[in-house]
Amino acid sequence: MKFKLQIFTQDNVEGNYVGRHYRFAVVDSDKSKSYPSNFICMLPSQISVDQKKNNVFSKMFGDQCEEQAKTLLTQPDKVQFMRKTFPAKANKTV
Asked: Which end of the chain is more exposed for a tag (fewer CB within 10 A), N or C?
């Protein structure tokens, strides 16, 4: 398996406000070259080997989860960015 991190930025535009959200997906580039068919799991926002293994990432990498997360986050050849922009939600009146 060849793990990489695919980072999605999502801009939510409402009036003069732009909110940016980031999602970090762990993908296997050996499985497929395109998302979502190469999706493995989401990178959790908090990672600790001391915590119970209550997320897919920790269950997959076990005691090596912190080291694997650092590798994915710090090696540029393992990161791919994708950007999505969503327009403001239409106000519906009932």
From this structure: C
